Amino acid sequence: MFILIIFLFSFPSLMRDTPPKLLQPHGSPTKEELRKERRREANRKCAQRKRKREQEAFQELEGSVAKLRTEVQLFHEELTRLHKENKELDEENNSIQEEISKMHGMELSAKFVISYAVDEV
Ligand SMILES: *[C@@H]1O[C@H](CO)[C@@H](O)[C@H](O)[C@H]1NC(C)=O
How many CB atoms lie within 10 A of CB 33? Predict the structure, then answer.
């Protein structure tokens, strides 16, 4: 029996959900034993609730992490899209600028031709 108790104490996880009667080898329990037993039971329940709360908090955090990962992924996709759009607008701007300088050049030539023609008259 002593060996059994030693064995149980070396593996607290075995004792955690084991009915406490196993730990009382003989006789009817004294008031002190009953009080200690109630205390143990209350502690056990308390620890159980604490584990449950911790598990719930952990699951909530996991949920938040998953949500944030999705958000980061979406922001990343949006950033890539905006980069691409910016590049396209930049190219469009460049070709418009090119068009403007061509027209400016043509305007200058036309002015030159006109002024030349006017001078000739
Ligand atoms: C468009 O191109 C011109 C000439 O290269 C540049 O000065 C201007 O800042 C550009 N506009 C934008 C919005 O990038």
Answer: 14
- Is 0.70 topped by the overall pTM? no
- Residues 6 or more apart whose CB falls under 8 angstroms from that of 23 comprise 5, 8, 15
pLDDT one-digit tens code per residue, 23-63: 556 788 899 999 999 999 999 999 999 999 999 999 999 99
Boundaries of every domain in the chain:
2-120
Q: Are 40 and 20 in contact (CB under 8 A)?
A: yes
- Name which residue sits closest to atom 1 of ligand 1, judged by CA: 93
Residue with CA nearest ligand 1 atom 10: 93
Q: How far is the CA of 100 from the centre of ligand 1 (A)?
A: 12
